[in-house]
Amino acid sequence: xxxxxxxxxxxxxxxxxxxxxxxxxxxxxxxxxxxxxxxxxxxxxxxxxxxxxxxxxxxxxxxxxxxxxxxxxxxxxxxxxxxxxxxxxxxxxxxxxxxxxxxxxxxxxxxxxxxxxxxxxxxxxxxxxxxxxxxxxxxxxxxxxxxxxxxxxxxxxxxxxxxxxxxxxxxxxxxxxxxxxxxxxxxxxxxxxxxxxxxxxxxxxxxxxxxxxxxxxxxxxxxxxxxxxxxxxxxxxxxxxxxxxxxxxxxxxxxxxxxxxxxxxxxxxxxxxxxxxxxxxxxxxxxxxxxxxxxxxxxxxxxxxxxxxxxxxxxxxxxxxxxxxxxxxxxxxxxxxxxxxxxxxxxxxxxxxxxxx
Length: 357
Ligand SMILES: Cc1cc2nc3c(=O)[nH]c(=O)nc-3n(C[C@H](O)[C@H](O)[C@H](O)COP(=O)(O)O)c2cc1C
Prior knowledge:
Blueprint: H1 2-15, H2 18-31, E1 46-48, E2 51-53, E3 57-59, H3 70-76, E4 80-86, E5 99-102, E6 107-110, H4 119-128, E7 135-140, H5 149-160, E8 166-170, H6 185-201, E9 207-212, H7 218-230, E10 235-238, E11 260-263, H8 267-281, E12 287-290, H9 296-305, E13 307-312, H10 314-319, H11 322-337, H12 351-356
Helix pairs in contact: 1-2, 4-5, 5-6, 6-7, 7-8, 8-9, 9-11
């Protein structure tokens, strides 16, 4: 229903400020019927993180920060939904405007700054959906004015892990000053140890994922991969938005806005980083490939670069929810065209080539 209506409402939404359009979309998901999704082709099923994902196409963090609509989003056809980022205490984020559409580049720049209703509100919403089908995870961060960021991640894990399939530790948002510094080796090691400990202390089964930035050297990636592996992180999410501004961007004025760039221009650098991560830890943990997916071809490339699961956000702004079904149909065709019976057989097949970009 929502997918069918999107081509009609898109021009209206795009006349609005991007944040206002997003808020209306969330309202639409809350009130409009989505119907029942058709069952996914069995060749798309992926068994990772102790679960069976019906298909590998997930919604990336940041779309449903407050966990208002995970179930309507699952009915759109996503194989899993990551809600959040959530921080312990409510915070407003940066002043508006703070999200921009670079339409000619099929990209988005955002500097939300982890605006969040806070842990209690989001935990209550997730608790309320306990027992429902559908794989939902949560993305966690630290308050901007926190004096103990490590404690913030622990508090989020303690409160949220019991209600979700996975918790993604976000140390890669570019919009909270200093947050990316948490990717440094010594801090990261302690952070991951404490998060895993907090999850175990509440007896939760949630997998712990680590989401990284695309803007790092391969030496830094070496260190992160080694730390994640040693601390029992169950998957890496590659990647968050980039602070880089490729020379190819056509929306020159908007490109000067501060914030994280996502969408099509992120595809190449994030896929390269994903393939590099697969070469380092592909034998030890699954990877979630994110950044610039806007078609079956780009999703397939992420899988062949090393992703067991993929996520997307920015392309929804341009193509709407119908894109999810189109990507899944295209992936089924690709598996069949290669004579395969399971998409999992293709994970990492091109990692060596794609790592060089
Ligand atoms: C408006 C917006 C808000 C986002 N908020 C978060 C967030 O809270 N936490 C996070 O880890 N990533 C966040 N992201 C990053 C996305 O989850 C994703 O990693 C990135 O956008 C690349 O995927 P895409 O090119 O498909 O959009 C946000 C992205 C956008 C566009």
